[in-house]
From TrEMBL:
MF terms (GO), sorted A to Z: DNA binding
Keyword DNA-binding among UniProt keywords: yes
Name of the protein described by the UniProt record: Putative transcriptional regulator
Lineage: Bacteria, Pseudomonadati, Bacteroidota, Flavobacteriia, Flavobacteriales
Coiled coil is among the record's keywords: no
Domain of life according to the entry: Bacteria
Segments passing through the bilayer: none
Family matches, as Gene3D superfamilies: lambda repressor-like DNA-binding domains
Start and end residues of each HTH cro/C1-type domain: 5-59
Pfam families membership: HTH_3
SUPFAM superfamilies the record matches: lambda repressor-like DNA-binding domains (SSF47413)
Keywords, in A-Z order: DNA-binding
CDD domains in the record: HTH_XRE
Organism expressing this protein natively: Flavobacterium frigoris
Length: 67
């Protein structure tokens, strides 16, 4: 799964730590999502969606082999 979390976070000019605090996870969780080592739960994806005011599909996309 590919994601645009790092790009979207940069657009808002917030750190991993700030984002983590806003959605109630650790900075390491944000880092793991951004580096594709962790696939977030539905709840976490929805929290990101709400915070950024964008669809979950704006953040996450299946790779060709996953479709």
């Amino acid at each position: 799964m590919k994601n645009r979390l790092k790009v979207e976070r940069a657009i808002l000019n917030i750190t991993q730590e700030e984002l983590a605090q806003k959605i109630g996870v650790s900075r390491q969780t944000i880092n793991s999502i951004e580096t594709n080592r962790f696939v977030p739960s539905t709840v976490l994806a929805l929290k990101l969606s709400k915070l950024f005011g964008k669809s979950v599909n704006d953040f996450f996309e299946l790779e060709v082999e996953e479709k």
